Amino acid sequence: MRRLLIVLAMFCMPITAGAVDGDNILQQVDRNLAPDSYEMYRKIINSQPDGTRKEFVLYTAKKGRENMVALFLSPASDEGRTTLRKGDNMWLYIPEVGKPLRITSMQSVVGGIFNNSDLMRIEYSTEYNVESAIESGDEILLKLSAKPNTAVAYDKLEMQVDKKTLLPTTINAYASSGMLIKTLSYSRVKDFGNGILRPSLLETTSPLYVGYKASIIFAEIKHKDFLDEVFSLNYMPRVKELR
């Protein structure tokens, strides 16, 4: 009888603040940010300490958890350039060069604080494992570590997730030494239609770039299916045909 009472008491115990399924939450964050396959238009703005700005407009297509391609629409000096990501591998196609060039996640095709990993992110759950998930007030703190043998720009992430919407609000990105590299802030939740309700603004600052700031404004995101050939080196000169 005593054993039965103990078992019943265990089932009746309240769920503690930390007893949340971090893996499931991170996967839902990915799905809430964008469909599994989509096309997107966005503007990237790099701001310098002296107030000068440089802007880029990109068309982006993504399929599944491995493939993404982006086409530069402006400025005129970058128009026609294309970036491709397949898993951990990334390339940049420059029309004047005529062939894809390998690039890394830590480099940046737009300069400024955003690196290629930020611009060509597939899904957080593809690159990171959840170390812990702690519920506190209206948010859930996910502590993430890079998956083994994954070429990522940050070794660890601390992601604050809104408990109601399951959308990220703030992400602190760290090096393996524990040094803070960057803070990314999501805001201005917008209804993009067809069930896509997500932040339309992503801003970032870095203690390594004092006075600099960068932001991404998401103008359009919608579900769209693509053929596998779209995400290949041979197709990079033809990405403009997708629009």
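The record above closes out task 2.4. Task 2.5 opens with a second protein, given below.
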Amino acid sequence: MGVARGIFSNESGLGSSPIAAAAAKTKDPVSQALVSMTQTFIDTIIVCSMTALVIISSGVWDSGLNGAALTTEAFSKALPGNEGGVIVSLGLVFFAYSTMLGWSYYGERALESLLGLKSIIPYRLVFCALIIVGAVSRLDAVWVFSDITNGLMAFPNLVALVMLSPVVASETARHMRVHIERRKEF
């Protein structure tokens, strides 16, 4: 379950964030990849660790709650008044909104690549309809559906990562050689 929620947190291994990184204007793809790697560090090490510390230090870790309810309870106990619940609620709203924007963009780029520009408008209509379906569906059904689709997306990406690892290694080595040579010039 931790791996499944971690994928929602930082999308590592899914192959989705490179779609956004590919849109960046850069002369060297390796430097963009190194910048993109920081998102996993910031999200997993900083944000998740801070959340875990609040949960542990507030003493609610063994309350029987989990997910957003546990986090809300921890922040509510750790901060005065209702600020904890407000902070978690705002965080969830921003996370949900940015997730919808991101996945909408990823889907558009994938369909444009596969079917051309004519597929974008129908995709947007289906995407918006599925937002409504997801909003009124049972939460556990939404999580199961999301976990299945993430798993289906991760499998071919992990195969591609293994197949492309020699290219990644050689490009990274080239990038590092160039930067070492530039430093020697100074």
